[in-house]
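Hi everyone,

Forwarding the result from last night's run.
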Amino acid sequence: MTTEEKNIILKANDLSIGYFNKKKPILISQNIHFSLAEGELVSVVGANGIGKSTLLRTLVGLQTQLNGSIELNRRSLKEYTIIQLASELSLVLTETPASQNLSVLELISLGRQPHTNWMGQLSEVDKKAIQYALEATNTESLAKRKCFELSDGQLQLVYIARALAQDTPLIILDEPTTHLDIYHRAYILKLLKDLAKETNKTILFSTHEIDLAIQLSDKMIVMAPSKTYFDEPCNLINHGRFDELFPKETISFDAKIGRFIVKS
């Protein structure tokens, strides 16, 4: 099934991103185009400072877009209220939670806030969503532990579980593998791949793990200095898009094996 035949969850057209300094727009990247369909795992890659986090923050409304349009479920992002957005997308950032004294179960339960009544009581539907999130991320054994007791890898799984419990069509994660060893980096990204397939949710994440992203992503957003590209990994490789990311005198991309090689 082609992207055109699937339901489009998130779409950007001629998008320009950046920030304002004394009301003056500072451009970081422009002419960004992509359409993300349901059930797809999509990665955002590029060098440090290229604008990956700025792009994600713009897509969820935390930063104002400088130009172009963003559509969430075929509706302009600007039309959504904060409460409405909480039912359409869930966000996993790298920041430490406000209270690490929360238990794992309490933190995951917060994902149900957009769906609970005014008293915050959990219904049977809420409890089932939380239980599914625990099972899907293999965090059941951590449920009673405090968040400050967890390793970085365990805490990242809990954040993903909270996003799953929120039960939105779109999940966006900013650098979900930061500070993790190579096993846990691969484990987290493989989990995201499996979740997109099993739940039919669209999952968008930024990462420095370009080699892993190439292997696991359905589509990739490649933010190069000259232009931002969007396509399937194999097409991006064939068109030499990864060659533009880093200075060639230090590191080069080997299209045959799909990996970066440090020059000796």
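Residues 250 and 263 are 6 Å apart (CA to CA).

Cheers,
N.
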